[in-house]
């Protein structure tokens, strides 16, 4: 299969290691992954701020860049959810729909499409996994604790394949970190307090690393950790799944 590698803006600019790990992991699993160099923002920040009517250029560029791939994969739940639910083009409606449905967040692609059952990775550290809201409630990457339903976690199942990892059990598995995209700007105080609460749960259980599928959430918690003088680090899940 031929996969288009969709790398969100903030990953490209601030956390390129997550993008590189995603590419390397896919290649290790026998996937031909290609990075379209003309890709830019998917339009999510504008849409989230009430300006979806101005995202036409982003939509058309995304379609042009990724129309010819079997699948599109990104190390980001929030950006993938935006593409899946909001990608549109009045002149290419069917094409836009086809592209949105074959766009996957990385861990969902590994579990649902590749059906990975083994990983040759090793990460001998105590790790807490943050389940981002977009991934959980929009993409259904994991079960929700308020529902009476069988528990599951696609990111968690992959992390359990990593040799020597010590995956901790959090008190509040699916609590929001408070980032919320533009929410952290418009409601700064609330966002920061929510982030401190989320970080405290990981620290209470002795995490050495905090991981997740969205670098945006991890970036928010990383800022709090640094301000607290903590030695705990954040890593995108791709970097752990790709570790040797």
Short synopsis of the structure:
The protein has 244 residues and is α/β, with parallel strands linked by helices. The protein has helices spanning 9-14, 16-28, 44-48, 56-66, 77-86, 93-101, 106-113, 133-138, 154-159, 183-186, 188-204, 215-227, 237-241; strands at residues 2-5, 32-34, 71-74, 103-105, 126-129, 166-167, 209-212, 233-236. The strands form 2 sheets. Strands 2-1-3-4 form a 4-stranded parallel sheet, with helices on both faces. A 4-stranded parallel sheet has the order 6-5-7-8.
CATH class of the largest domain: Alpha Beta
**CATH fold assignment of the largest domain:** Rossmann fold
Gross geometry: globular
SSE string: EHHEHHEHHEHEHHEHHEHEH
> Beta-sheet strand percentage?
5-15%
Uncertain residue ranges: none
Share of helical residues: 40-55%
Largest sheet: 4 strands, parallel
Strand order of the largest sheet: 2-1-3-4
Distance between the termini: 25 Å
Number of beta strands: 8
Structural class: alpha/beta
The whole-angstrom Rg is 17 Å
- For the record, the count of structural domains works out to 2
Description:
The chain has 244 residues and is of the alpha/beta class. It has two domains: 2-113, 3-Layer(aba) Sandwich (Rossmann fold), CATH 3.40.50; 126-241, 3-Layer(aba) Sandwich (Rossmann fold), CATH 3.40.50. The protein is 46% helix and 11% strand. The protein is built from 13 helices and eight strands. The protein has helices at residues 9-14, 16-28, 44-48, 56-66, 77-86, 93-101, 106-113, 133-138, 154-159, 183-186, 188-204, 215-227, 237-241; strands at 2-5, 32-34, 71-74, 103-105, 126-129, 166-167, 209-212, 233-236. It has a four-stranded parallel beta sheet with strand order 2-1-3-4, sandwiched between helices. Strands 6-5-7-8 form a four-stranded parallel beta sheet. The longest helix is centred in the C-terminal third of the chain and has 17 residues, at 188-204. The two termini are 25 Å apart. The model has no long low-confidence stretch (mean pLDDT 95).
């Amino acid at each position: 299969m031929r996969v288009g590698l969709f790398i969100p803006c903030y990953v490209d600019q601030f956390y390129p290691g997550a993008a590189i790990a995603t590419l390397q992991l896919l290649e290790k699993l026998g996937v031909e992954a290609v990075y379209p160099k003309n890709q830019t923002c998917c339009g999510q920040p504008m849409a989230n701020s009430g300006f979806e009517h101005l995202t036409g250029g982003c939509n058309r560029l995304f379609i042009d860049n990724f129309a010819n791939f079997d699948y599109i994969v990104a190390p980001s739940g929030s950006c993938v959810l935006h593409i899946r639910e909001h990608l549109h083009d009045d002149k290419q409606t069917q094409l836009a729909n086809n592209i949105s449905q074959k766009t996957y967040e990385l861990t969902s692609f590994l579990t649902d499409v590749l059906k990975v059952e083994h990983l040759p990775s090793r990460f001998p550290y105590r790790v807490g996994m943050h389940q981002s809201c977009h991934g959980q409630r929009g993409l259904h990457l994991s079960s929700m604790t308020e529902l009476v339903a069988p528990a599951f976690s696609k990111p968690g199942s992959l992390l359990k394949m990593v040799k020597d990892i010590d995956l901790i059990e959090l008190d509040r598995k699916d609590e929001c970190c408070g980032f919320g995209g533009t929410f952290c700007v418009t409601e700064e105080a609330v966002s920061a307090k929510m982030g401190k609460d989320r970080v405290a749960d990981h620290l209470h259980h002795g995490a050495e690393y905090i991981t997740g599928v969205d670098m945006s959430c991890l970036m928010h918690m990383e800022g709090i950790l640094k301000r607290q003088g903590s030695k705990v680090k954040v890593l995108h899940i791709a970097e752990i799944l790709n570790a040797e």
